[in-house]
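Hey, can you fold this one?
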Amino acid sequence: MTETNSTESIVPLGVGTLIGDSFSILFRNIVPIVLIAFVPSLLGVLLSGYLVGFEALLSLGEMDEPSGAASALTSLVDLVVYSLTTAFLVQLAYDAKLNRPIRIAKYIRPALASVIPIAILGIVVGLLIGLAALAFIIPGLWVYAVFSVMEPAVVIERLGFRGLGRSEKLTKNYRWPIVGALVLAWICALVVIVVALFAADFALTSGVLAVSIFLYATFTAVGTGLLSILTALIYARLREIKEGVSVDQIAEVFD
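Sure. Predicted structure:
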């Protein structure tokens, strides 16, 4: 897990700034972000609920533990949902960063063009993370950091299945700071997920499954949105450091 040391000084990634900008973009654009992230989140909830049962997924009470295979599949579903959400929110993040109008309709075509490679590569990354995590959680986090900017690379540079290699190249020498940024964001997203579970469990115990699913998908869309925005900003920061490409130049791809 060691990285090759560069003979040049390493420019700091700026984890604090990235986290702060991610929250700023999320809060300033909460409605369009939830609208974009809701559909992938809803599909993920429906598929995960089918695999492990909606009561097991949405209830806080004691339930039978799902099988290892079902749990692994739901984890893959979550990763694919995150990847697809990021494909849409990459563009919004840059418009918001540049204080430009949010143009949801304009984001659809580039995102849909990237859906298939991103979904497949998301599964590949999930399997690699799972294999690395069998040893311990830290290798899994490191592998995730290696491929963490795959989605923006595919959407913006239209690399298709070469997105993994591009991410590996961009994240070199910055994987541990990326792990730090992602862990901080995951902790915040986990808080949102806990709130989602309480809301979903309340609706479920009231006998309203549809409302429970809706609430859970809505809240998880917020958590996923935060992680997706952070991923987009990490990608932009890495390209700024390594290639001298500004956010303005990245955003020109969508104009």
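The mean pLDDT is 84. Let me know if you want another pass with a different chain boundary.
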